[in-house]
Design a protein that fits this description.
The protein has 193 residues and is α+β, with helices and mostly antiparallel strands. 35% of the residues lie in helices and 31% in strands. It starts with a helix and ends with a helix.
């Protein structure tokens, strides 16, 4: 009986080792086929990007200046989606997937790679609503626009105006009009960075 157990154990051990080697080879083949890794020390990452090669290292899965940012705004009330593409703002350069999840809690990170980041946000309200963005008690405040003037307050943000330039402070003192939730979200995101 012990001999049968020994044979079964030996066969299982050989199968485990074979599966491990096969999995390692498959993963290595996938990495070689899908990524170009800089191996020449004389080349920099910037040189490789300029020449059309995307340098991707396992530990370097971060947003870089050439990353395409895709913003998807889904308007639940209208059932429509607006998509825009942009370069990453300076404050996103170097962020990882974990950083994006941590800092952009009201966004769904649909996909993340050094080549492209897709972010989705659900917006409630109509895209034709007009707002006035201004300063109130040291914070950026959003009002509904009614007949060209400030109406009811939509939101008092937690964005402090003390860190803004004098020109931006002056612009917020006067207030400015924004059309649609999409544009309003972009304005507030720019101020919060």
């Amino acid at each position: 009986m012990n001999r049968n157990k020994l044979i079964i154990f030996s066969v299982m051990a050989v199968l485990c080792v074979a599966c491990g080697i096969a999995g390692y080879c498959a993963a290595l083949s996938f990495v070689r086929d899908n990524y170009t890794v800089i191996s020449d020390n004389s080349k920099t990452i910037e040189d490789s990007i300029d020449n059309g090669y995307a340098a991707v290292l396992a530990s370097d899965n971060k947003i870089n200046p050439s990353t395409k940012m895709v913003y998807q705004y889904y308007y639940a009330d209208e059932g429509s989606t607006k998509v825009t593409e942009d370069e990453p703002p300076y404050f996103m350069i170097g962020l990882t997937f974990d950083d994006m999840v941590k800092y952009y809690t009201n966004w769904d990170i649909v996909s993340f790679s050094p080549q492209e980041v897709v972010m989705r946000k659900t917006v409630y309200g109509k895209d034709s609503q007009r707002y006035i963005v201004c300063e109130k008690d040291g914070y950026i405040t959003v009002y509904y626009e009614e007949n060209g003037t400030k109406g009811a307050i939509k939101e008092i943000t937690n964005i402090d105006t003390n860190g803004l330039t004098e020109a931006e402070k002056e612009r917020l003192k006067k207030g400015f009009s924004v059309v649609g939730d999409y544009s309003l979200n972009r304005v507030l995101e720019n101020y919060s960075s």
